[in-house]
Amino acid sequence: MAKAKVELKKIQGGVTAAKGFQAAAAEAGIKYKGRQDMALIYSEAPCRQAGVFTTNIVKAAPVKWDQKQVYGGAPAHAVVINAGIANACTGQEGMDYCRRTAEAAANALGVAAGSVLVASTGVIGMQLPMERIEAGVRAMAPRLNSSLESGANASRAIMTTDTKNKEVAVEVYLGGVPVTIGGMCKGSGMIHPDMCTMLSFVTTDAAISKELLCEALKTDIQDTYHMISVDGDTSTNDTVLLLANGLAGNPEITEKNEDYETFCRALNYVNETLAKKMAGDGEGCTALFEVKIVGAETKEQARVLAKSVITSNLTKAAIFGHDANWGRILCAMGYSGAQFDPERVDLFFESAAGRLQIIKDGVAVAYSEEKATEILSQPEVTAVANIKMGEAKATAWGCDLTFDYVKINADYRS
């Protein structure tokens, strides 16, 4: 008899939901006026850390700093994040500024500089105004607390072109002990699989070995952050950090047992939720566009097909126009590089307004254009393609392509 899945309980909060984590925000005046633009995450206990970073060859200084710390540095105590300037393509000076940021946090918090991670998002090529950065760190340190409000303030402070802050938290039981995983992220443009212009910070009070923490994150991003796209551009600054301080007091997870599976399921819920929040807040978008490939021969085949559809500008424009232009979807599947028989594909559109089959075995069926438009006019729209080759499936998330996307990116530096 199969074991019942352990229930995941969604709770309020984000990075401060887990035991022992605090956050703060400050208005440092880095680029924006009249809003907070720096955030600080702090753990009362040292954290085991895992990270995944941009695949772009051009990597920002904070990415290089964090890679060194995550893969070979001391346990983490804090993360300092700034919005407005990316600290990318800034040479040795940019690396020195990472060190200075970490040292400022170390002095303010009484921890080692090697235990401080840094992250930046914003305009590429500009140097950070270090006096403002260091002043921001000093201002945030005494404001640190574990309230949900502090976590929400931190999630708002890291926004750039985002229209809303993004956070989530969930509680599960591991070894009979309540454990929390929470997170926050930012991301709206320059979003593309492997990964996107995104910063994501996930915190947990679970006790788990570093090896399994890293494996859980590396495995999970394949079906979460790697499955979203807004505009086809891969950033220089993409960073996902997962910090575990062990303060929940659960029996430490050191092997792939039932507790590990439960932890991975909870982590997937957090990461998928954050990923979808980013895709649904794509620059200028009006709808979250979800693509499900079912009946695939392999998981990888399904992933490739799903990502090809959500990255198709013609398909994204059709979703914006609420137009059931299914030929664009089949075309995007056809140039994906994955092999399938187009004469066996069934395609459906679905949303809160209903479900409608559009093609059967690669040919259009008689359907109501009015009903299709109604379905495609919802804020969340799904296309489901069954390629009838096996049992594998995958889901990707994107958004529609609108006039406002061009407007936002035409004057991003202004």
UniProtKB/TrEMBL annotation:
List site positions: Involved in the stabilization of negative charge on the oxyanion by the formation of the oxyanion hole. T121, G122
Active site, per annotation: T197 (nucleophile)
Per the record, the GO terms for biological process are: L-arginine biosynthetic process; ornithine biosynthetic process
* CDD domains, A to Z: OAT
The biological pathway it contributes to is:
Amino-acid biosynthesis; L-arginine biosynthesis; L-ornithine and N-acetyl-L-glutamate from L-glutamate and N(2)-acetyl-L-ornithine (cyclic): step 1/1; Amino-acid biosynthesis; L-arginine biosynthesis; N(2)-acetyl-L-ornithine from L-glutamate: step 1/4
GO terms for MF: L-glutamate N-acetyltransferase activity; L-glutamate N-acetyltransferase activity, acting on acetyl-L-ornithine as donor
Family annotation (InterPro entries): Arg_biosynth_ArgJ, ArgJ-like_dom_sf, ArgJ_beta_C
Residues that, per the record, bind substrate: T160, K186, T197, E283, N409, S414
Q: Does the keyword Transferase apply?
A: yes
Catalysed reaction(s)?
L-glutamate + acetyl-CoA = N-acetyl-L-glutamate + CoA + H(+); N(2)-acetyl-L-ornithine + L-glutamate = N-acetyl-L-glutamate + L-ornithine
Q: Which UniProt keywords apply?
A: Acyltransferase, Amino-acid biosynthesis, Arginine biosynthesis, Autocatalytic cleavage, Cytoplasm, Multifunctional enzyme, Transferase
List the subcellular locations.
Answer: Cytoplasm
Xref: SUPFAM superfamilies: DmpA/ArgJ-like
Where is it mostly found?
cytoplasm
Q: What is its EC number?
A: 2.3.1.35, 2.3.1.1
- Residue ranges annotated as transmembrane are none
GO cellular component terms given for this protein: cytoplasm
Query: Which EC main class describes this enzyme?
Result: transferase
User: What's this chain's function?
Assistant: Catalyzes two activities which are involved in the cyclic version of arginine biosynthesis: the synthesis of N-acetylglutamate from glutamate and acetyl-CoA as the acetyl donor, and of ornithine by transacetylation between N(2)-acetylornithine and glutamate.
Quaternary structure, from the entry: Heterotetramer of two alpha and two beta chains.
Q: Which family does it belong to?
A: Belongs to the ArgJ family.
From the Swiss-Prot or TrEMBL record, give the protein name.
Arginine biosynthesis bifunctional protein ArgJ
UniProt lineage: Bacteria, Bacillati, Bacillota, Clostridia, Eubacteriales
